[in-house]
């Protein structure tokens, strides 16, 4: 989870995050959480007296260390290194130096945390960090990475939204391949979905047609049976009427005088 110090660090950028319970940091034990808190405090003391140049060198070393851990698939340790880097960011300097800190470290920290949580399949936190870094620095590269993230978790409407945000792709030739690849992947998925729905609709239509044919045949059979029964019962009624008249005529009482 995000350290409280890390949350405070980005409050100046108007990025809202929920308060985190330290006892629930990635299901760590209370002892491990306490050790981490001590470590963060020691870092704060150590970094306090560093010059801007020394601080920059330390951040660069930590960044390379975190990236190496990421490529070794040690995501929890990489997250810890990136969080420790938040202590070393100096955003209270000149405008030029502040911009260097943001471009070289602050934005990459948040983006790399998103990648780590994605690899850990903690998609809620990954989405939180993707949204945070894009809100602070909406570069086409970050937007496309979030688009791929949304594609991987099958949120295709959000993929389309991310693609629509990249309106100047021709100005970034190094991103064109990724952009059109993602666009093609989305198109293929949507096409397959349409074909699936069409097949389902055709099957339903065929079922409806077959049902109509069956009903039509039943109607024909019903009409035939009705006609047959009408003929049968009609003849029987005539026979019964004739038989009744014969019985009446053969009854001697009918002709007896009273």
From TrEMBL:
TPR repeats: 107-140
Keywords annotated in UniProt: Repeat, TPR repeat
Coiled-coil boundaries: none
Alphabetical list of InterPro entries matching this protein: AIP/AIPL1/TTC9, TPR_rpt
Domain of life where this protein originates: Eukaryota
Protein name, as recorded: Tetratricopeptide repeat protein
């Amino acid at each position: 989870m995000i350290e409280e110090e890390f949350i405070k660090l980005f409050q100046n950028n108007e990025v809202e995050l929920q308060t985190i319970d330290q006892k629930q940091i990635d299901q760590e034990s209370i002892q491990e959480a306490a050790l981490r808190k001590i470590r963060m405090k020691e870092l704060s003391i150590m970094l306090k007296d560093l010059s801007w140049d020394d601080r920059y060198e330390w951040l660069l070393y930590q960044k390379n260390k975190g990236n190496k851990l990421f490529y070794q698939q040690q995501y929890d340790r990489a997250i810890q290194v990136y969080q420790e880097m938040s202590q070393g960011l100096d955003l209270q300097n000149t405008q030029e130096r502040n911009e260097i800190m943001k471009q070289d470290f602050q934005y990459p920290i948040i983006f790399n945390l998103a990648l780590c949580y994605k690899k850990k399949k903690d998609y809620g936190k990954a989405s939180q960090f993707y949204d945070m870094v894009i809100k602070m620095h909406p570069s086409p590269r970050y937007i496309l990475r979030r688009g791929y993230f949304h594609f991987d978790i099958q949120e295709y409407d959000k993929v389309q939204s991310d693609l629509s945000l990249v309106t100047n792709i021709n100005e970034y030739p190094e991103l064109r391949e990724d952009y059109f690849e993602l666009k093609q992947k989305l198109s293929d998925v949507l096409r397959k979905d349409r074909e699936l729905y069409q097949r389902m609709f055709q099957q339903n239509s065929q079922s409806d047609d077959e049902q109509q044919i069956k009903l039509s045949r039943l109607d024909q059979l019903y009409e035939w049976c009705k006609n047959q029964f009408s003929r049968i019962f009609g003849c029987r009624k005539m026979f019964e009427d004739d038989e009744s008249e014969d019985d009446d005529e053969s009854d001697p009482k009918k002709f007896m005088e009273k």
